[in-house]
Amino acid sequence: MSEQERRAELAESLAQVRDRLERACRAAGRGPDEVELLAVTKNFPAADVALLSDLGLRSFAENREQEARGKVAEHAELRPEAAPRWHMVGQLQRNKARSVARWADVVESVDSERLAQALARATANALEAGDRSGPLDVLVQVNLDEAAGRGGVAAGDVPRLAEKITTTSELRLRGVMAVAPLDGDPDVAFATLSEIAARLRVDHPEAVEVSAGMSGDLESAVAHGSTRVRVGTALLGRRRLISP
Ligand SMILES: *Cc1c(COP(=O)(O)O)cnc(C)c1O
């Protein structure tokens, strides 16, 4: 496929996703600018990120640190003026904290105090080395699926982890993130998440973000107060492996 054809394809899918989002917001009585569209570019090349930048997107997400760090650098070369915000949304090992602190603006998948501590340290180092210019925004990932380990802390552990995050000066607690269970009702899951988020805001009013909803369930997430949908497949197509 030529770059021109790919650009047209992405423009069309972006228009469709924006249309879905707008309808979902209207149905929920919310304004279209209350929900941010985050493009999940995992398994797609930096060239696609560049085209999405051209189409006006400014927020991108990756779920594997190693894949992301190269792509972020490559995109910066392709579009030096774009100034995107990069989100890490996948499970993160503590030994990757150093690297993630150099490229991520937001880590949405913080699910342990030890990871939070490692990220705070890594952010301090990156600031000192001049590899980043500000604190790291973080979300607490909540596990809504007791059956499967898709990452995240149990609802009951959210307050303690949130407290831990706010004791660091390098991390900024911004809210919660979750993935709906594969085989459950997303309405039930996102309603639960909405309650957890509301309880968190009592003690941490700055934690306003609710990152919820993907290609298959963004309407449900928006109905339950999501402030950020993470969309991969509906924007970029079915994931294929990028060549190394
Ligand atoms: C891949 C991924 C998404 C996007 O999923 P799609 O169904 O492709 O839209 C969202 N969130 C996380 C955490 C992901 O890993």
UniProtKB/TrEMBL annotation:
Pfam families: Ala_racemase_N (PF01168). SUPFAM superfamilies: PLP-binding barrel (SSF51419). It comes from the Bacteria. The modification N6-(pyridoxal phosphate)lysine is found at residue 42. Residues 14-238 form the Alanine racemase N-terminal domain. Keywords: Pyridoxal phosphate. InterPro entries: Ala_racemase_N (IPR001608), PLP-binding_barrel (IPR029066), PyrdxlP_homeostasis (IPR011078). Pyridoxal 5'-phosphate (PLP)-binding protein, which is involved in PLP homeostasis. Belongs to the pyridoxal phosphate-binding protein YggS/PROSC family. NCBIfam families: YggS family pyridoxal phosphate-dependent enzyme. HAMAP family: PLP_homeostasis. This is Pyridoxal phosphate homeostasis protein. The lineage of its organism: Bacteria, Bacillati, Actinomycetota, Actinomycetes, Pseudonocardiales.
